[in-house]
Amino acid sequence: MTASAQPTTGDGGDAAPAEAENPIPADAPSTGALLWRLIRRARGYGWIITALFALGFVVSGIRYARAWMIQPAYDEVVTPFLGGTPVLFEAGSLAFNLAIAYATTIVIQPAAVFFRSYSAHWVVASVRRDLDQDIARRLLAAPLRTHRSGTSGDFLARALTDAQLACQAVLLVFNEVILNSQLVLMGFVALVLTSWPLSLLTLLGLPVLLGVLSFFGKRVEKQSKRRQETQGDLSQRLLAILSGIKVIKAFQGQDVEASAYETQTGKYFRRHMKVVWNGVAARAVGELVNPTLALIVIGVGLWAVLDGRLTLGVLMQFGACLGIIYKPLKTLIQHYPKIIEASAGARRVFQILDLEDEPADRPDAYVSR
Prior knowledge:
Layout: H1 31-40, H2 46-68, H3 70-82, H4 89-141, H5 144-149, H6 152-194, H7 196-202, H8 206-243, H9 245-250, H10 254-306, H11 312-353
Helix pairs in contact: 1-11, 2-4, 2-6, 2-11, 3-4, 3-11, 4-6, 6-7, 6-8, 6-11, 8-10, 8-11, 10-11
């Protein structure tokens, strides 16, 4: 006897409904509100976060302190020496003090980086543990109609994949975004103290960068939401295959199920690559804007040196600070699409955490024993 095998069904026995393609509801929380709510889950570990911020300023201060040593070392030690002027005792003492200060930063920075990175991972691991526990509590407390209206695959994808994606955003914030923001902030202060005219010229590229991040960020958010919905469908279909494996084999439906699963994975792949494309495009535009702006600023600085408005030591110090800022700014541009991408997972996780509780029984309700 032969029979035509049909794709497996969901938990309730009916065919899985077609995937909804509705956009984000108008009354849905904004991405910023979702991320802030996610970050607030770490507020119970405030003392570690305080230490994390403090160590971040130590790491940032050390990097710019090294750059700050360039100007006195070059203008007061190297330049007189190259010009044939005997190096005076004061210049030699300055060189010795700068060497001691530089050696001190070499000792302090590795310890600060280690403890800061470990603290960030500790906070994120604690947030993930608390999040997993809260998800389990909410699923247990939700009424049965909530479980019947959804699918086990979707709940599983939210509890595992989306929770992991949301915690990746927390890790990026505490381990990368905060430190790199401190580096950019202190770097701009160092640039202003070194040469405020060149600093103002540097700010000209800021509106371009913000525009690029805003444009691609919205596209990443939209595509990430659709991708995570497909992840839920994949989990549900795999659970249906496992639960109905006896029926599938009895009716020789392996090829039908494999074909249906390949269709779902193909849809996930296409949506995932749209997310990747927008993130890569944002980084590529940043790679174009940042070096171009740095070239313009350094070119103006060289003109100022030739015109006698700046010393070569000041320009070298400014260039060193600008070089330090470039890496954290590049990192922030790279991580911004990833954080927006993770907001789609956070949105789906909070939809579970916001489920209503099962109504309490009446005082006179009968309790079966």
